[in-house]
Amino acid sequence: MFFLYAAILRYLDADFPDTPRLFGDSHAQQWEIEDWEFFARVDLARPMMEVVHLKVYGKEVGAKLMQRCSANFAEAVTKLAAKMSGQEWLVGERMSAADITAAAVLTRVQNAELFPLPAAISELASWQNRVMHFDGEMRVLRGKAERLRDVK
């Protein structure tokens, strides 16, 4: 369920080309967006998912694993913060699927409260807030979904 929305974003973006592109305007942007989506789903989410999977199956989560996952999460956040330094969006001049994916994953990991938050996370707060509360893009997505419903 955590990553199902990626397919929905792709479908809506492809089916409604007259609205702002979530996956970029060029092949280069599409590749970069996909790279950052992959980063978010793997590097940013993996530390939380490792711990959650063990807990779901009733296995013990040792201190060594928690330290490793916490360090991996901190490393991913630092990489994301370095990329965002001095720019408003991950790829291009407007919000893309990369921003939506990375901000959503970051928010999910923060809400899980499994690890101490790395210092670099404060550098992402403004961007994360813009993405998670970006009404303009959300209106576009809601409009696409409504038009899709009307077609059926």
Task: Describe the overall structure.
This protein has helices at residues 5-15, 27-44, 46-56, 63-84, 97-112, 125-132, 135-151. With 152 residues, the chain is mainly α. It has a single domain, classed as Up-down Bundle (Glutathione S-transferase Yfyf (Class Pi), Chain A, domain 2), CATH 1.20.1050.10. The mean pLDDT is 86.
Name given to the CATH architecture: Up-down Bundle
Q: Percent of residues in beta strands?
A: under 5%
> What is the typical, i.e. mean, pLDDT?
86
**Low-confidence residue ranges:** none
CATH class category: Mainly Alpha
Summed up, the domain count is 1
Kindly provide the radius of gyration, computed on alpha-carbon positions and rounded to a whole number of angstroms: 17 Å
Largest sheet: none
Fraction of residues in helices?
55-70%
CATH topology assignment: Glutathione S-transferase Yfyf (Class Pi), Chain A, domain 2
Shape: globular
